[in-house]
Amino acid sequence: MADLVKELVTGVVNSVLKEILKKGTRKSTTTKRKKRQTRSATTGRFVKKTSTAARKPARKQVSRRRTAAGRSRQRNR
Fold first, then answer.
1. Which of the pair, 73 or 27, is modelled with greater confidence?
2. pLDDT (tens digit, 9 = 90+) per residue, 8-34?
3. Which distant-in-sequence residues (6+ apart) come within 8 Å of 66 by Cβ?
4. Cα end-to-end span (Å), the chain
5. What are the residue ranges of helices labelled H in the chain?
6. CA–CA separation, 73 vs 66, rounded Å?
7. What percent of the chain has pLDDT over 90?
8. Which of 24, 29, 10, 14 is nearest to 77 (CA)?
9. Are 38 and 49 in contact (CB under 8 A)?
10. Up-side HSE of residue 30: CA atoms within 13 Å toward CB?
């Protein structure tokens, strides 16, 4: 009887350990976004963007309140 119980417990423990180890502990990263390509007006093909020589100066950074979704994401990390 004790043998049967021991065998049952070891079987359950082994299956649970396999299940835990099978799943990755690493969380998935956010998807990388691609920049939109511009099409040529005449040919309709994708054209490489030419860099602008005179850029506007960077805006002063302002602290913004987190959105509800942002707070939720922060909490889940």
1. 73
2. 999 999 888 888 887 666 666 778 888
3. 74
4. 46
5. 2-22, 68-76
6. 10
7. 8
8. 29
9. yes
10. 5
